[in-house]
Amino acid sequence: MSDTKVDVVGIGNAIVDVLSHCKEEDLTRLNLVKNAMTLIDAETADSLYAQMGPGLEMSGGSAGNTMAGIAALGGKGAYIGKVRNDQLGEVFSHDMRAIGVSFNSAPTTTGAPTARCLIFVTPDGHRTMNTFLGACTELGPDDIDADLITSAKIIYMEGYLWDRPDAKEAFIKAAKIAHEAGRQVSISLSDSFCVDRHRESFRDLVHNHIDVLFANEDEIKSLYEVDTFEKALAEVRNHCKVAALTRSEKGSVIVSDNEVITVDAEPVARVVDTTGAGDLFASGFLYGYTKGHDLATCGRLGSICAAEVISHMGARPDTDLKELVADTI
After folding, report:
1. Tens digits of per-residue pLDDT, 270-302?
2. Could you give the domains of the chain?
3. CA of 78: how far to CAs of 3, 72, 102, 218, 294, in Å?
4. Which family is it part of (predicted)?
5. How confident is the model at residue 1 (pLDDT cuts 50, 70, 90)?
6. Could you say which of 52, 171, 253, 301 would form a disulfide bridge with 20 (CB–CB 3.0 to 4.6 Å)?
7. Is the whole model's pTM more than 0.70, yes or no?
């Protein structure tokens, strides 16, 4: 992969996050499903936004957060996603480029506005996400830049994209281009509810197109319809080159053809907001993976990055990740 110019190309929903603290009873009052990501329409987005407390707004989206983490570690990243030529679209584009991630996807000039995710954070640090996809739904095969894909060591997609046919086609196109060029392909399953919606096609995707799979315990159990993590572990090792499976405070398990590696969770003084934990785990892991580190080191890097992001509000790094991982690599 000596001829590559980029470490990772991320493909995802270009979203501006709005985060706000709330009480448990607020979720009940608003009829929200705790810890889930729920797709909402424009009217619901306006209604929920009006009922949120003081918020923090920042560019987000799962794959966008991962790319931000890779850039913070010193990796070279690029991003493919769709925004509208509106204020939030300009904010998202500026933020990505400002952190060092190449973002050249053409914005839409008509139709729905730039996507936003309304995130309610309860006192235990868990997040409940309500996403209006807006312009994200316009992402399709024509947005895949073949030259960009072949310039990267690995491409990374968020499972949330699997909700829409055009986005599915876009990712399959990108995966085929990557493999034909000798590159690798990775995906995060994103959310157990997302897996529930698309289980069979996700299984086919993992088996036929994915080299590196990211999932948490609930997602991987849902994928294979089993009741224990151990059963899911036995299944997944037969279907992709590497699986990086996170288990919250239990750490993570990295699986390949011939090894199973357990990585402890990094200590955290106080869990403030779990938004982005999986995204930043993927940042650390992929950074290590593209730099040729062994899988145990990749898992450790992921744990360090995840621990950093759950210690504060927001899904992007708040401290110097290079300094945090300096003793690990």
Report:
1. 888 888 899 999 999 999 999 999 999 999 999
2. 6-13+61-112+135-325 (3.40.1190.20)
3. 16, 13, 4, 29, 24
4. Belongs to the carbohydrate kinase PfkB family.
5. very low
6. 52
7. yes
